[in-house]
Amino acid sequence: MKKQYFYEDPYLLYDPAVSPHYEVFLMHRIVYKSEPGSTSYHADRDAIDPAVEKSEWLPSPYVLHVFSSKTGKWEQRSYTRQGQGAGTVADVPFNCFLGNKRYAIYLRGELYVHCEADFVMTISLFTNKFQVIEPPKGNKVSLFDGLYLGRSKSGIQCASVDYRKNPHQLQIWSLQDSCGQMEWALKHRADIGPMLPHHEYNQPIGGSWMLQDINYYNYYEKEKIAVPEKCEWDSDNDDVLENGDRVGEDSKYISFLGFHPYKDVVFLAESCRRGLAYHWNSSKIQLLGNIEPNEPCISQLFGPISETFLYTPCWMEELPLSN
User: Fold this and answer.
1) Cα(134)–Cα(139) distance, rounded to whole angstroms?
2) Within this chain, do residues 119 and 205 fall inside the same structural domain, yes or no?
3) pLDDT by residue for the chain (323 residues), tens digit each?
4) Pair (203, 283) in one structural domain
5) What's the superkingdom here (predicted)?
């Protein structure tokens, strides 16, 4: 593959319940091309190759570089596609900011990778075959509204927030097998703006999350707040917002943080300030705490949250299912 058109994005595959060894897959990504006449256009970098533009994406066979901790070496592996691809390279619109990481899930020997134009590629490590899963129906591809791929109690999920039309509308899909064809089924859609908690900007934020505000202490010499070594939190009952606490007039927008791995719960951020847990089966919302640096000047300096990931302990006993 031409370097002017593609780059390799690393993904770690590790499941200690299956093996103490891990693998690193280098997935191919399409390089963003600036259009002639734009200020960012460079002829050498952004020149169009008609042969590449007409080539199939994702190709079959699909050859990847893979590192194995078992052998300590890199090797090439070839995977054969089942079903249709995503079209040609020219057909796939660019919908991700430069440098942003697309998410992936490794589950039971299957790797699910978020690809260009919100397609999802699933690779079977057992059969050396892969499928290309089309984006959810009705979800338009956008540079700002990319899908968040994750895993919850119900299996492989994806979610999006419609920033263009309604910055409070949350949509959640579940991946299902329909006669051997993988497709997304809409599980939940809600405008949670009216349910977001009212809060004055200069008031302290409660909740169980504690911000490890490292930047704050780099700029201000103040005594650090003691953090308990172990913090118990009931993800079903603690910090639940009552109906009287929910008003939407001052709420701005929500952003998606991730899925709870063992419950039908998603974690959200309200205006990049407060963490929220939303139970989509009951529409219950829990206030988690502050996720913004303490000093406004630092918050403005570092900007909003650009990427998130949820830490999931490797061993099941480290994360009780009750939480």
Assistant:
1) 11
2) no
3) 666 778 899 999 988 777 889 999 999 988 877 777 777 777 777 778 888 889 999 999 999 999 999 999 999 999 999 999 988 988 886 655 444 568 899 988 899 999 888 899 999 999 999 999 999 987 665 545 568 899 888 889 999 887 667 778 899 999 998 777 889 999 999 888 777 756 554 454 455 555 555 444 454 455 454 455 555 555 555 555 555 444 444 556 788 888 988 888 999 888 767 788 899 888 888 888 777 655 554 445 555 566 676 766 554 444 445 45
4) yes
5) Eukaryota
Eight-class DSSP state of 314: S
Cα Rg of the chain, angstroms: 22
> Using CA atoms, how far apart are residues 160 and 170, in angstroms rounded to an integer?
6
**Interatomic CA distance for residues 131 and 236, integer angstroms:** 36
DSSP 137-195: TT----SS---EEEEETTEEEEEEE-TTT-TTEEEEEEEEEETTEEEEEEEEEEE-GGG
Q: Are residues 198 and 122 both part of a single domain? A: no
Task: Give the C-alpha distances (Å, rounded to integers) separating 193 from 90, 148, 161, 285.
Answer: 38, 20, 12, 11
Pair 238, 119 in one domain: no
Domain coverage including residue 77:
6-134
Question: Which contacts of 311-318 are long-range, i.e. CB under 8 A and separated by 24 or more positions?
Answer: 312/261, 314/14, 314/16, 314/17, 315/16, 315/17, 316/17
Answer yes or no: is 310 within a domain.
yes
Do 109 and 223 share a structural domain? no
Tokens of 166: 């309604």
